[in-house]
Amino acid sequence: MQGASTKGVLSQLGLLEVQARSRRAQPQQQPQQQQQQQQSHVKELKVKVEQLILQRDQLRAEIQAHQNLQKLRMSLDKPCEEDEEMDDDSEDSQILRLMARQTQLRDLLHAHHLVGGYDIVKTSQGKGVCVSLATAYEGTYLETYKLEIDLKPTLRISRHNIPPFIPLNSIAEQSHMQTDIKAFLNTLSQHLNAFSSRKQQFKLVKELFHKSVEVLESNVLCSKLVLMVTVPRENTSVLCKLDYMDHTRCLPTRVSFECEDEELPDSPQWKKNCSLLMETPVHKALLTMKEMENIA
Questions:
Q1: Mean pLDDT throughout 234-240?
Q2: In terms of C-beta density within 10 A (0-12 exposed, 13-18 middle, 19 or more buried), how is residue 255 classed?
Q3: Distance, CA of 84 to CA of 129 (rounded, Å)
Q4: Each residue of 137-161: pLDDT tens digit?
Q5: Which residue of 47, 111, 172, 228 sits 20 to 30 Å from the alpha carbon of 32, by its own alpha carbon?
């Protein structure tokens, strides 16, 4: 009995010794785990700091580039004023000038596109642009013309489908395309819209009055129109000549009449008809004259 009792005490002492060792070892492991967790957290913070520094540098670079572009944009809008800070011929300076010219064109053409003017897309990997000029008359879109413009080393029209009777080179020279792209595109757009509008008017005259009004003459620029109308009461034919000398407008600059009755063109009624044709699109003026029974 005594031997069994001794074994039981020894076994209990051994168990207590194991538990004591376990308690002593556990406090040693906890600081080690905490240290590893802290080191891992520090690494994460360092990575985050590096990312934030990189973002900060990128934002600074973008702000600086934007400020340089704004200065260049102002110098492009005011060609007589030179930017002293960007007066070097370095590659970075040339790239910034090119970017400024592109953003200027893009913003300008986007604004005109919103009002039915023209649109722009990049070409040749950003070294040029393609301008689309849409024409319209009374809310109806007509032809769209395109021209490609090289931006470097100078502005230059490389390709286009502008009608040959539109004086493109003359417009570019007179509007100072190299220094004022806005004036050039505005003038060109006026020419194209006026031409398309005159062309559409002549088309409507043929469609609406093919039985009563005879178109005797017109040209490709639609700057001249000769009509033959009939005065129903006198049964007299009148030759109407409309000249559109201002190619940026769709209304005639001169209207004249010829007929056998020499007194008719000077009559009050036909003087009113002359003013009507000068101030109103030709198809609308003819419609009014027909409603007033001035023509058959």
A1: 90
A2: buried
A3: 28
A4: 988 889 999 999 888 788 889 999 9
A5: 47
Q: Which of 98, 133, 161 delimits the end of a domain?
A: 161
Beta bridge partners of 146: 132
Q: Is residue 26 part of a domain?
A: no
- Can you give the residue range of the structural domain that contains 120? 88-161
Segment 216-235 shows an average pLDDT of 93
From the CB of residue 216, how many other CB atoms can be counted at a distance below 10 Å? 12
CA geometry: angle 27, 29, 32, nearest 5 deg: 115
Q: Which of 114, 146, 161 is the last residue of a domain?
A: 161
Could you report the per-residue pLDDT of 162-189, keeping only the tens digit for each?
A: 999 999 999 999 988 888 888 888 899 9
| CA 9 to each of CA 6, 13, 17, 19: distance values in angstroms, whole numbers, following the listed order | 5, 6, 12, 15
The per-residue pLDDT for 2 is 47
Q: Are residues 209 and 156 in the same domain?
A: no
Residue 102 covered by a domain? yes
Residue 139 within a domain? yes
Domains of the chain: total: 2
- What local confidence, expressed as pLDDT, does residue 262 receive? 87
Nearest to 238 by CA among 286, 200, 172, 280: 286
At 233, is the secondary structure helix, strand, or coil? Answer: coil
In a domain, 227, yes or no: yes
Judged by DSSP in three states, 107 sits in helix
Question: Residue 248's closest CA among 188, 189, 194?
Answer: 194
At 96, list the tokens.
Answer: 């910034």
Give the Cα separation of 43 and 84 in Å (integer): 46
Contact present, 277 and 285 (Cβ < 8 Å): yes
The residue count for the chain: 296
